[in-house]
Amino acid sequence: METSSNYSPGLEGIVAGRTTISEIDEARSSLMFRGYDIRDLATKSTYEETAFLLLNGRLPDAAELAAFESRLKAERGVPGEVIDLLGKIPAHAHSMDVLRTGISLVGLFDPEEWDGSHDANIRKAERIIAKMPTLVALGYRLPHRMKPVEPRDDLPHAANFLYMLLDKEPDGPKGRIFDSSMIIYAEHEYNASSFAAHVTVSTLSDIYSGITAAVGTLKGPLHGGANEEVMKMLIDIGEGDKAEKWVMDRLGRKEKIMGFGHRVYKHGDSRAPILKEASKEVCEFDGYCHWHEIAVKVEEVVKREKGLLPNVDFFTASIYYLMGLPIETFTPVFAMARAAGWCAHVIEQLDDNRLIRPASEYVGQRGLVYKPVGER
Questions:
Q1: What is the pTM of this model?
Q2: Which label site among 46, 62, 128, 136 has the fewest CB atoms less than 10 Å from its CB?
Q3: Of these residues, 157, 198, 262, 292, which one is catalytic?
Q4: 199 shares a domain with 50
């Protein structure tokens, strides 16, 4: 049966909406948030400032930023009932399942859950951004029967998360570098999870439902999880002098090497070089560059053999591992950072809403004659 000319599997290349939040320039392999280059934001801004930009469409002045930071700090805690319920989750639960459940739970306690006005959605977005790090830390510590670590209001957003997860403050450049990685992960146009949030709230559902849908979408290995798989790959390789043979064996079997290529970026991911430098800085600070060196060797072989360049997930693996983050937290950290972008998309959808209901093309049988069950 012939298919229509406008059908595109996976909606690849289909323009599904208009946005002022972010833009990917494929020709230049660049990414901009609200008109600002990601390289400037990642190296000069903070996550809090970038989150304000994504939510409000402009950079804050000093007073606005200070007030925004104070509001986030005030909203870091989660209700005790949520902690109690998350504490009952079995130890084998996937950390993204715990986060998805946590977001849905905290929504039940939001006094403005069903206020769909723009201002209420901004306030709810701030609460979500503030609570996501706490939920991610709880989502790892509670199933592992570790005592929760209370958030601190004297630490910035990124450093406070590392403290809650690891029960110690980040040393040296680690807090700043982790903050930069969160900026890089904060937004990325109409990716699968952001689009899922659009679809969900287009029915006039609430922002928590949209973010819950986004977390569930990010859980899938074709969207999130690549940084986890990269680290498992580096551990499997083990030594730098084994990297070339390991990669060549995989390529010979036509297996995918995780952390390379991207559906959108055809000439390299502009975020990857920033993270490569950050990985080097962390390893030099710790005096242990083992994982970074294996990653660089893998990068060289894949580029030489396949012409592929690393994407955003490749060097975040060694960064997070060197900082002491358990591998299973890598994707929840991605979600925690992406919360600002997701909320911005939800608000943009609801500010000018139209129900998202695409058409489908039927390619099944026609004209079948029904027979009663006794005659089949």
A1: 0.94
A2: 62
A3: 262
A4: yes
